[in-house]
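Module 6 notes. Inverse folding takes a fixed backbone as the condition and produces residue identities as the prediction. Think of it as a translation problem where the source language is geometry and the target language is the twenty amino acids. Below is one complete input and output pair. Work through it position by position during the lab.
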């Protein structure tokens, strides 16, 4: 092979999910942090999705490699299973021989095992890769397992990883109960052009390049155009390009070698869209326009005074990538960020692994989350130090309405709903939180003052 020519100690672009080669892009770091959150939270249930070759399996292997010894893991990779076959597979991972057991016996054995492990102080985790292949009946068994609990907490942490079809399944009406159990969701997109270059250099460094530039600078953009930033495709193209250079007797990989490799694999350049998150800085004019739109109520049908503003007619389940609403984040009256809201969850907090990072001492590590569904959009406090406020009242959960402004720390989040005409009463005033949204009275809120430093919330 080409190891001697390139002075490498091991093959840099193998397709096996080797944790030592994991390149932690910003989004891979966030997905890994979401996996790790299953250990922190007693109700840990995380879904990681991504295109084929996005790096999900490598993330799982890295996560497993770093787990503490008190965590008991069942890892399922074969997902073309019947409900009974699935339960038997889980039991096999936990050390049982269940092949003569019927479904009821499997369930009873699993329940007993989970309770015993919890009583012994051990945490139990179920990780399912290629989860998009699970049938609705098997996913219902996953939901039932996620509900096993003691009087105080859940006893099974769950991670589902799969291709984008997994999200489509979870968004279907028949799996609504399962989707409601999911605490965090994250979708891995391909690497950007800059990240693609860094990914290649990282793998070469792990393989022993010691900082030597094996690929010519002008080869990186071409690799990105052929692979679209998908890690598995990058590995295949780079490995074949290095073989082409080896056959030519040169220890550097040029554009010509990349082109030769692409021809051998019969690849064509892809039309690559931006892989950056759907966020962008707003100009002052755009921010002013958004604020003006929110301040002007749109025409809407007459509403009965008895009708609750938080009620709305049932809407069909939207496509996963449809923008249903958007938020604008502002500080000291200056809007600096716009974020589209699509079906799923979006977490806001101080650290980098959040979907929206607000670097402020008044924001907790995981401060709040916004859950977007077909007919509602809810913001929920994640036990933050300084809480979330609507109309100067602290709330734990709140159904957002068009034009609402939510105070978190020293920042404001303005919500704009794009599904239905804006809802406002005759005076144009926004409503007060309803009893169902559980406002905390101000005396209770004052127990944790707004100027308390986020350093005090490290135990969250």
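Target side of the pair, the amino acids:
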């Amino acid at each position: 092979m080409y190891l001697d020519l390139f002075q490498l100690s091991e093959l840099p672009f193998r397709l096996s999910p080797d944790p030592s080669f994991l390149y932690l892009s910003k989004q891979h770091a966030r997905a890994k942090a979401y996996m790790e959150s299953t250990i922190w939270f007693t109700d840990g249930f995380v879904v990681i999705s991504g295109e084929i070759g996005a790096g999900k399996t490598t993330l799982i292997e890295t996560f497993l490699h770093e787990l503490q010894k008190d965590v008991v893991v069942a890892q399922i990779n074969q997902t073309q299973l019947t409900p009974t076959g699935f339960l038997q597979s889980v039991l096999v991972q936990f050390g049982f021989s269940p092949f003569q057991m019927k479904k009821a016996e499997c369930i009873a054995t699993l329940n007993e095992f989970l309770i015993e492990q919890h009583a012994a102080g051990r945490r139990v985790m179920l990780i399912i890769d290629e989860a998009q292949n699970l049938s609705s009946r098997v996913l219902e068994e996953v939901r039932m397992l996620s509900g096993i609990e003691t009087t105080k907490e859940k006893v099974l942490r769950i991670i589902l990883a799969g291709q984008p079809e997994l999200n489509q399944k979870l968004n279907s009406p028949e799996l609504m109960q399962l989707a409601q159990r999911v605490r965090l969701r994250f979708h891995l997109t391909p690497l950007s052009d800059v990240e693609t270059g860094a990914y290649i250099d990282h793998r070469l460094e792990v393989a022993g390049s010691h900082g030597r530039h094996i690929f010519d600078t002008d080869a990186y953009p071409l690799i990105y155009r052929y692979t679209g930033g998908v890690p598995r495709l990058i590995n295949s193209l780079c490995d074949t390009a290095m073989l082409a250079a080896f056959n030519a007797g040169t220890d550097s990989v040029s554009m010509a070698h990349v082109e030769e490799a692409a021809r051998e694999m019969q690849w064509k350049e892809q039309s690559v869209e931006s892989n950056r998150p759907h966020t962008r800085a707003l100009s002052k004019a755009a921010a002013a326009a958004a604020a003006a739109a929110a301040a002007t109520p749109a025409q809407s049908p007459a509403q009965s005074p008895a009708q609750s503003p938080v009620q709305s007619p049932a809407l069909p389940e939207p496509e996963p990538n449809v923008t249903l609403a958007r938020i604008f984040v502002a500080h000291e009256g200056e809007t600096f960020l716009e974020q589209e809201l699509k079906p799923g969850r979006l977490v806001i907090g101080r650290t980098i692994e959040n979907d929206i990072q607000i670097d402020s001492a008044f924001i907790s590590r995981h401060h709040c989350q916004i859950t977007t569904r077909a007919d509602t959009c809810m913001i929920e406090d994640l036990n933050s130090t300084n809480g979330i406020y609507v109309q100067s009242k602290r709330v734990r959960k709140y159904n957002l309405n068009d034009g609402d402004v939510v105070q978190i720390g020293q920042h404001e989040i303005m919500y704009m709903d794009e599904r239905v005409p804006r809802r406002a009463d005759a005076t144009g005033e926004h409503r007060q939180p309803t009893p169902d949204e559980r406002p905390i009275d101000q005396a209770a809120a004052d127990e944790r003052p707004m100027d308390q430093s986020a350093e005090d919330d490290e135990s969250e």
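Reference fact for the lab report: The radius of gyration is 25 Å.
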